[in-house]
Amino acid sequence: MEAPHSASTAEVARTLAADAELGLSEPEAASRLARYGPNRHARPARPAYAAIALRQVADPLVALLVAASAVSLAIGDGIEAAAIAAIVAVNAALGFLQEAQSARAVLALRESVLEMASVVREGREREVPFEDVVPGDLVLLREGDRVPADARLVRAAGLELDEAPLTGESLPEGKSTEPVPAATPLADRTSMVYAGTGVTRGRGANNAG
Fold this sequence. Notes:
Distance between the termini: 13 Å
Largest sheet: 7 strands, antiparallel
Low-confidence stretches: none
Structural class: alpha+beta
CATH class of the largest domain: Mainly Beta
CATH architecture of the largest domain: Distorted Sandwich
Mean pLDDT: 87
Strand content: 15-25%
Number of strands: 7
Helix content: 25-40%
């Protein structure tokens, strides 16, 4: 098959052994989930403490204070040098603790929020966790939804998506089911939707890849 963005919707459905109207059967979806695994990226189990610590001492102001402490020590003013060093150490420790606490809170929030996708299976719409979306699933998109997986559109009605995290474009991107040339840059592949982007307008359906 050609690249999904340049292939017809019928070709994509045929390659994925998917039905663009009824979706997958439940047994087939379960089989694909077992075969391909959950639809998720590996997430860090804990904050990046080393990077957080490095940020506390990478500030130009910290470098200036360290230099001032070194100069004070060089001219024999040990008390002032020690005071400046103590200020730097306390500031770095407080900054590290606050940022590490915030990072832990964000990780905990991500684990507690279960994102759901609307899919059609055996002709019926149902909600499944993002991680249970499998290749060939018929995923429904509506205003306010997030896209659970990279996919080829099979239906679109006034569909627009915010793809700024992916392309840097500030304006929503209009989408359609029409194939585009194989050499089309990713940002201009209007027949595709990408994981993590958000629907700002309209509705659509796609075959997850």
